[in-house]
Amino acid sequence: MTDMNYIAVDWGSTHLRAWHIENGVPINVLHLPFGVTRLEDATPEQIFERYINPWRSERLLPVYMAGMVGSDAGWKAAPYLRCPLKLNTLADSLTAVLPGVWIVPGLRFQTDDMCNVMRGEETLLLGVQHLSHASCVILPGTHSKWALTESGEVRRFDTAMTGELHHMLMHYSLLGRGLMAQEDSEVAFLSGLHRGMAQPALVETLFSVRASRLLGELAPEAVSEYLSGLLIGAETAVFTQRYRPARVALVADGPLKPRYRQALAVAGVEAETIAPELAFLTGIRSIHERQ
């Protein structure tokens, strides 16, 4: 029987989260603002030594890290494994950075006219296959991922820069310039959602956000909500058309969970919600059990 004592690390661009697992149960948790783009003058190894290595003690517990820590901007570049790929083979391609410390590889999907990559989400997908029977998995976020998985294999995946577009448009474009403080508005969100789903070609709908505000059709404090609905609606329309799912596993929490559930309901798709932390820890546990 596998010794269920190890450390799981989700190390992204902006944050680092780590779990000290004893007998299969987290006994210590770290949430730190030291993503690989926010290390200031420290190196990833120095952050690891300062905050995570003390958990290893004399036993030198194995450590499994996933996310942007394995990018060319992280600790050490881990490979992108080509899809289609059996998710349980992730454990066979770990990249060592220290004795007993590994980085999970990312995934890539390529066709004649499309290139796509992911880092970190592959571990969530591995966890989801132990938690759900849905073949379509949605991972909303800064760069939302939609993946098709069948029989434990990732067949393809796509990316929408929904979260990043919302941030950029609200902070660095004409759409967000000179606005008052934004407020929650389900009415504005749903209005944008239906518009985005009906007209997902954003190149001709984005400017209407500004025009609607200027002409009094959109409250100035509700621009963010309307834009959120527009972007999520467009994403949902494009990918439900491509994947045609009857049911999906939605890996989301916080404010994104109800927004995507609403979008999927409008599209007529049943959604089973899975907490990202549960999916991640289940994925890392699966990797550890194969070592």
Please specify the SSE layout and strand pairing:
Layout: E1 6-11, E2 16-22, E3 25-32, H1 44-56, E4 63-66, E5 80-82, E6 85-86, E7 95-98, E8 101-103, E9 106-111, E10 114-118, H2 121-128, E11 136-139, E12 144-150, E13 153-160, H3 162-172, H4 186-198, H5 207-214, H6 223-243, E14 247-251, H7 256-266, E15 270-274, H8 276-289
Parallel strand pairs: 1-4, 4-8, 5-9, 11-14, 14-15
Antiparallel strand pairs: 1-2, 2-3, 6-13, 7-8, 9-10, 11-12, 12-13
Helix pairs in contact: 2-8, 3-6, 4-6, 4-7, 6-7
Taken as a percent bin, the fraction of beta residues is 25-35%
* Number of helical elements: 8
Q: Structural class, please?
A: alpha/beta
Question: What is the CA–CA distance across the termini?
Answer: 11 Å
Low-confidence stretches: none
Judging from the principal axes of the Cα atoms, what is the shape? globular
Q: Helix and strand string, N-terminal first?
A: EEEHEEEEEEEHEEEHHHHEHEH
For the biggest β-sheet, the strand order reads: 3-2-1-4-8-7
Q: Please give the share of residues in helix.
A: 25-40%
Total number of strands: 15
Largest beta sheet, briefly?
6 strands, mixed
Gyration radius from CA atoms, angstroms: 20 Å
The overall average pLDDT, rounded, is 95
